Prior knowledge:
The chain is mainly beta and 268 residues long.
Amino acid sequence: xxxxxxxxxxxxxxxxxxxxxxxxxxxxxxxxxxxxxxxxxxxxxxxxxxxxxxxxxxxxxxxxxxxxxxxxxxxxxxxxxxxxxxxxxxxxxxxxxxxxxxxxxxxxxxxxxxxxxxxxxxxxxxxxxxxxxxxxxxxxxxxxxxxxxxxxxxxxxxxxxxxxxxxxxxxxxxxxxxxxxxxxxxxxxxxxxxxxxxxxxxxxxxxxxxxxxxxxxxxxxxxxxxxxxxxxxxxxxxxxxxxxxxxxxxxxxxxxxxxxxxxxxxxx
Length: 268
């Protein structure tokens, strides 16, 4: 890594990049066969992260290939609502780490993970970077175990808010564990909490008002089975918010909108 005068780091043949303390705030990752990506290295909290860059589409001449047809069956697991329950409330990622446990709803079959989907609200700063790490679950009553890490931390950055951000994990060739898995969301940089209130129906609720953070949408799905864990820097603790009623009919406490897509292949 150099600007022609100073050396800021080096790259290896296996795609690893190491930067020195004198590295500029941002670096651009480029490869002839992939789309470039700019990374703000000044906010990275880890000594080592994974950055997935997308392959460029290359037009090739038509070639006829004949092979036995495969049938692909896709499945979703997790919180799959298309829209958040309340658009102006969500899970702030500025102060602590979130880990959402996703149980395996079909242990009779084997599935390969295709993607992780996280709903990012337009509230706050939806295009700030964050990290995703996957852990094999042991049980929904047990916290994420660092020894069971499957992949990550992976650098992520949404292009917009009020939409699902999709992280393609097919390159890892990960099998969905029979015991489920944790999807951990960690902010690229932590900011102090600033709390305010918002009125919904007849009730006022406390919510984070710091705009310099990413908010994950909350959905009224699986409300009575709360599978969210938080780490404030002192270890993981399972959240146990009871369902709350607004105007006698709807629950405000939902799970973070995070789900997995996976596929199983069968030959006909």
